[in-house]
Amino acid sequence: MKVTLPTQALIEGIGHGAAVAASKSPKPILECVALHASQATGVSLEATDLDVGIRYQLDDAAVAEEGSLVVPASRLLSIVREVDEDETTLQTREGNLSVDTGRSHFKVRGENIEEFRRLPYFPETAAATVPAGLLRNLIRRTRFAAATEAGRFALHGVLLNIKGKSIEMVATDGRRLARAAGTLAKKAARDVRVIVGPKGLGLLERVLATSDASGEVSVAVEERQVLFRAGGALVVSRLIDGTFPAYEDVIPKSSKYSFEVTTAEFAAGLRRTSLMTTRDALSIEVLIDPETLTLKSRAVEVGQATIEVPVRYEGPPTRIGFNPQFLQDALKVMDAAAEITVRFTDGKAPVTLSDLTSDGGEELGSYVYVIMPVALE
Amino acid sequence: MRSAPRRILHLDMDAFFAAIEQRDRPELRGLPVLIGGTGRRGVVSTASYEARPFGCRSAMPMAVARRLCPDAVVLPTDGRKYAAVSERLFELLRDVTPLVEPLSVDEAFLDVTGCERLWGDAVSVARKLKARVREDLQLTASVGVAPNKFLAKLASDLEKPDGLTVIEEEDIDRVLPPLPVERLWGVGPRTAERLHAAGVRTIGDLRAWSVPDLERAFGSSGPHFARLARGQDTRVVVPDGRAKSISQERTFPVDLEDPEDVRDVLRGQVEDVARRLRRAGLKARTVGLKIRYGQFETISRSLTLRVASDGTAELMEAAFTLYARWVRRGFQPVRLIGMGASQLVEPGGEQLGLFPEPGRVRDARLDQALDALKDRFGGTVIGRGLSPKPARSDGEVPEPGDPD
């Protein structure tokens, strides 16, 4: 194999591969990327940790000699980052990879390509197609709320639900829940209801961020895997088995009171309040009064903070405890310049955050974030 | 309505360091022993009771003590050893209540108000503590029982060593007046000098002064002395941080051969520990299991819960899981079994869950109901299904509280 590629594009592509490949695995093959070069299809790259995989087409490649190669992803990435020229030539010699740049010569020991688990191909027909910008936002606004470890329900995954023209993604760790939804231009050929792991979605978000956002993403489900095809990239993620909890029931249909606050001001207040929390005293107290939100934190060994944030509110004074991180997570994915609406009943009932306009338009979709308080007494 | 009088214990070990050495080295028993710095400028940290008639006292230069008692055995301080004994001592104390305020390595206040139903009245608690100190540590302690900290500390000092002294409200006017003013909390040598200069030598003398006069003479300490002289002290027992763990263990006179029997004992221990957690208003993140078997091999295993809990069912599940793992690896007759709850957190600040957990709510109601029954009728009245007689031996679980 001998190929020449634009260095920047190569770094980006191997970067995706390195994000997938295991960083430390008892099986060295799982730490690798596979490169395939042919005159007909150009150069593509594959990486998988067996749960998540990516195939990525590298554009503008000149193939001088066809062939394949498997090398450790992070090592290859580090080497290519050292390349000074605009173009990089990758060449195999007896199963090993040579990279030459200026007066530096690298030789990387290749792994046996037979051991590399090839990824499936996208089926002929997609279940649905989703605008790339919308899908990226759905992921960005939900993924962080998934549980970090496996628990009783399949909470460590994100629910992807496509039905007719509607699409929604839901994630919850049992204490807070994020639901983002949007509308498709074209009715789905087949409904999709799957639970996808956060790593696969993170990879997809990463790929969508670097590719043309105006494009479309095709979605298919096959053999307990979900496949996303976006331009020259294919992201495959093994589905998470289990039952997603009845999330519809925990999104409050109505709350007694609500206030409006500017996202950026609320976020700044929370950031300041969090300066006075510790791992043992994580929660903060939120006092909701007409015109003013008072955020208080107190960590016995550290000190305390009292921060006021202007709000629009006309109800009775109310006191609610929160894990500030849960609030901050949501504010990060909401429009910083806009106002959000916070709906609540008391210190024990779920609280919802939503964009002031419940529908953020085609690109953003609608969003609701539900958070359970921390008991203050 | 007046709240019920407080029941405060002050426990003070007798000649702590010296007693530990005499315990571990029988040849020293009955001999005057001085523990402390053995260098030229060394100071006595503890003098055994045998050395005290010679005038040896703690904080005295070692050279002076040696002159007073030339035959005394002088030993350097073995801090690590004493710390280990001290740790065990505080475990014993915290078994009774999390409200333990350490004053030093061998001295503490305990607030046992309201413990009657679980442990018996304050005097029985004091007796049990002394017994456990004797059995578990082979040492003696002096305990004072009183309605407040000042009187409890005063009481523990009245009949040392191995004393148990009770000062009740009605004893105050009899006990306090003849005592020297130095006995008052906060009266050091300098204040004592000033009091003596003013003709005040006993607590009785001080009582003759009016509060304004005392305030004029001694500033803000004046009213404080006046209150103490009348046996009044409202200071509360402040636990040192939080209790680090609540645990229980039991050694069997004969090794238990049947895994099921061990499990039954463990069940009782979990019930007791869970109940003590709830009483202290604490929840545990970690459940630990300790097993001694065979030739004194001891294993400790622990498991961290997803959410801190004070629920009997949840703690039981964790303890049984650990036990089952050990049994699967090959059961051997068990000499000692113990379980403990650690990484304790106070409720409040508890993150509520989005999804209903009907099981947890039901379990919590059951715990509440059982606790109420046990408080009312004593520990033996009821147990969970299959719950055997409560684990009881070696005084580790006291008799049910005296009925009202």
Keywords, please?
heterodimer, A: alpha+beta, DNA Polymerase III, Chain A, domain 2, 3 domains, 42% strand, elongated, B: 404 residues, alpha+beta, DNA polymerase, domain 1, 14 helices, 39% helix
Describe what this molecule looks like in 3D.
The complex is a heterodimer of chains A (377) and B (404). Chain A has 3 domains: 114 residues, Roll (DNA Polymerase III, Chain A, domain 2), CATH 3.10.150; 121 residues, Roll (DNA Polymerase III, Chain A, domain 2), CATH 3.10.150; 121 residues, DNA Polymerase III, Chain A, domain 2 (Roll), CATH 3.10.150.10. Helix content of chain A is 19%, strand content 42%. Chain A contains 7 helices and 26 strands. In chain A, α1 packs antiparallel against α2 and α3 packs across α4. Chain A is elongated and about 75 Å long. The model of chain A has no long low-confidence stretch (mean pLDDT 89). With 404 residues, chain B is of the alpha+beta class. Chain B has 3 domains: 169 residues, Alpha-Beta Plaits (2-Layer Sandwich); 53 residues, 5' to 3' exonuclease, C-terminal subdomain (DNA polymerase, domain 1, Orthogonal Bundle); 159 residues, Dna Ligase, domain 1 (2-Layer Sandwich), CATH 3.30.1490.100. Helices cover 39% and strands 21% of the residues of chain B. Chain B contains 14 helices and 13 strands. In chain B, the strands form 3 sheets. A 5-stranded mixed sheet of chain B has the order 5-6-1-7-8. A 4-stranded antiparallel sheet of chain B has the order 9-12-10-11. The C terminus of chain B is likely disordered. Chains A and B meet through β26 of A and β13 of B. β26 of chain A pairs antiparallel with β13 of chain B, so a sheet runs across the interface.
